[in-house]
Specification:
Length: 672
């Protein structure tokens, strides 16, 4: 495409400084054509710079294919060699060679970061090999995000005066305020993002009115409902929670927040960790069960009472088999004694959730008109999307209005996630019209290429101003509506209004940064430019030897392994001690969408004593059966009997060695 035909005036305005070789962040709303503008910059860069090499970084695997198929390949593919690389394909293993042979490479940020620090020739890449680095959704360039790790290496080289370095082009629909509520603090946040990307931030000024025409803002409406006058189901759940509170002997210094809130959830998560650390199984188990009751209260607040009841029923159906002590028996009996009463209350239509009625009328307003419509409901959790789909399919009025709904949730392994192929298929059906309502988690807010909608509903959500702007950016059809269904004066209502203020604040902060003199801007940005090198993990790791750490089951505290049994293979942490088998039982066969060259998944595994899920077996190189463990399901015990619960393997206080296949085979007589 040429300048005259391919770009709107406002797009030409925002790329002007990039075409002169400056580092910039383009700030345009969702649907404003940021990626198209970036493709144009890449094209001009490749045509004018000798030995040019463009690297496009994204923060989600599905965006690699999307940018390749939708933007870069159609516009540049005929003239330049373009490659896409993600954890999904084998090119990552010889990424250095792929980069040498290509002119444009699209990949996840983690793959580039790994290549920058890996010294093997086939995998290694130098920043100086790249001449233009395009960073999508660049507001994620902060803290320990992969984007920021890449940019720290860049800033380090820049401060040492090492050249050449790539030109930077960041793209964002909203840098947000970073939690700031005042203009001063919001300005600091924008300056920090600019410093992290070594860039200035540009937006449409001269052609702002054209941008407004091309990307019209949807009509916003608050669908406010009154609080339920009576909610006996909720009252009954809270009385059960109070029974658990009395039984568990709460520490005297601990005050629990109000039941049915996010704050209460944070409290019981802390209590469980404390129980684990203090070897107090009563405290730890009661806290885990309270979290389930609190989840049920949150579900009851947004969805149907029966959805809340079913979430508890499902949880306790898995607990029936083997209570291992009095705590388990007490918790199980409490639920079973109240089960019939709970179910009867959940089925009583007098106390139905008024938010669901409001959601129904919002959908019927849109779909009942007879005009073809497309809508998205954004909801908080994977479970809530399933419940809403079930409701839509069983609701006669919505079915008569011709609503054809399906869910869209994040990619991952396991039955509560979607595969990437399923995601793509759902979006394709939505585009073709065989579906007209998507019920989605936040996965559809950022980046996914979803056709324009007439109606976007945010339902039972508490998120920040960035997510709000991205969601409203999905309502792109003419005369579209962005609706918020919330209880009068409730948390979602307050949060949404706060987000409106923060969105305005972001704009003012960017404006303030853009009107600084170049001298003033440089002075202020330099405060954030001194790189903070992260030596934290290495220090933490080497505190103990692997053999001095015991792994205990997180639920029953049985000691089951030593840290020295754990080895690293293909980014998985496996137990190589054959005696470990006697500690677990098998579950279902794990199925994954894609296959791997060196290993295949086996069955899920659980603790033999308490049935706590631990992970799954893998078959490595067709002969070695190895249990692949999730560390969050265990607790570590150090030589001083100190107990440490950790969420991720990178946080364990010892060094995990690479798996030596040959040695393993010799020790286990798998090889001659």
């Amino acid at each position: 495409f040429e300048v005259t035909t391919g770009l709107h005036n406002y797009q030409q305005e925002v790329v002007e400084r990039a075409l002169k070789g400056e580092n910039i962040i383009i700030w345009l709303p969702t649907g404003g054509g940021k990626t198209r503008a970036a493709v144009y910059v890449a094209k001009k860069h490749l045509e004018t710079k000798p030995n040019a090499k463009v690297m496009v970084l994204v923060n989600k695997v599905h965006l690699v294919d999307q940018h390749y198929n939708k933007e870069f390949e159609p516009h540049l593919g005929g003239t330049f060699i373009i490659k896409k690389v993600s954890g999904e394909n084998k090119e990552k293993d010889f990424f250095g060679l792929v980069v040498k042979q290509s002119q444009v490479v699209i990949c996840t940020a983690q793959i580039l970061y790994n290549a920058l620090i890996n010294k093997e020739e086939a995998r290694h890449v130098e920043l100086s090999d790249i001449t233009l680095l395009i960073i999508d959704e660049c507001h994620h360039t902060q803290k320990e995000e992969a984007y920021n790790k890449v940019m720290r290496l860049y800033v380090e080289k820049k401060l040492k005066g090492e050249k050449p370095l790539p030109q930077i082009l960041g793209l964002t629909a909203s840098p947000g305020t970073g939690g700031a509520k005042t203009l001063e603090k919001a300005v600091e946040h924008v300056l920090e993002i600019c410093a992290n990307l070594d860039s200035v931030i540009v937006s449409a000024k001269e052609y702002a009115s054209e941008l407004k025409e091309v990307v019209p803002k949807p009509r916003k409406s608050f669908k406010i409902v009154k609080e339920r006058l009576k909610d006996p189901f909720r009252d009954h759940l809270i009385s059960m929670m109070n029974s658990i509170h009395s039984h568990m002997n709460l520490p005297p210094d601990f005050r629990l927040k109000e039941c049915g809130t996010q704050e209460y959830e944070a409290d019981v998560v802390n209590l469980e960790q404390r129980g684990v650390q203090e070897k107090n199984r009563l405290l730890a188990q009661c806290a885990l069960h309270l979290r389930q009751y609190n989840d049920a209260l949150l579900i009851n607040d947004t969805l149907r009472m029966i959805d809340a009841y079913r979430s508890l029923e499902e949880y306790y159906s898995k607990k029936r088999n083997n209570p291992i002590d009095g705590t388990d028996t007490f918790l199980l009996e409490l639920f079973e004694e109240n089960q019939v009463e709970l179910k009867n209350l959940a089925m009583d239509s007098r106390f139905d959730n008024p938010k669901m009625d409001e959601l129904q009328s919002t959908l019927l307003q849109q779909f009942g008109s007879g005009d073809p419509s497309r809508a998205i409901i954004f909801s908080k959790t994977r479970k809530s999307t399933q419940c809403l789909k079930d409701w839509v399919l069983k609701n006669r009025a919505l079915q008569e209005a011709g609503i054809k709904a399906d869910i869209l949730i994040g990619a991952g392994n396991g039955n509560t996630y979607m595969t990437q192929n399923e995601q793509a298929e759902t979006i394709r059906n939505f585009r073709m019209g065989s579906l007209n309502l998507l019920i989605s988690t936040s996965v559809a807010e950022e980046g996914l290429d979803i056709p324009e909608c007439n109606l976007v509903v945010r339902y039972g959500l508490l998120t920040n101003e960035i997510a709000q702007q991205q969601a409203s950016g999905r309502a792109r059809a003419e005369n579209s509506q962005y609706a918020v269904v919330a209880q009068a004066g409730g948390r979602e209502d307050c949060r949404e209004r706060m987000n409106e203020y923060l969105e305005e604040l972001t704009g003012k902060a960017i404006d303030r940064v853009q009107t600084m003199t170049p001298q003033d801007f440089c002075t202020k940005v330099s405060v954030y430019t001194l790189p903070v090198l992260n030596t934290f993990h290495t220090e933490k790791r080497s505190r103990n030897t692997a053999s001095s750490i015991q792994l205990l089951c997180r639920s029953c505290f049985a000691p089951v392994a030593s840290g020295s049994d754990i080895k690293l293979v293909e980014n998985m942490y496996v137990n190589v001690n054959p005696d470990f088998k006697k500690h677990y039982t098998f579950g279902d066969q794990l199925t994954l969408e894609r296959s791997f060259e060196d290993w295949e998944p086996g069955c899920t595994i659980s603790c033999k004593i308490c049935s706590k899920k631990w992970g799954n077996e893998i078959k490595y190189k067709k002969c070695a059966i190895l249990p692949n463990l999730a560390i969050k399901n265990f607790v570590l015990e150090s030589p001083g009997q100190e107990r440490l619960p950790v969420k991720k393997w990178k946080d364990v206080p010892f060094t995990v060695e690479e798996f030596n296949f040959k040695e393993y085979c010799q020790e286990n007589f798998l090889l001659d």
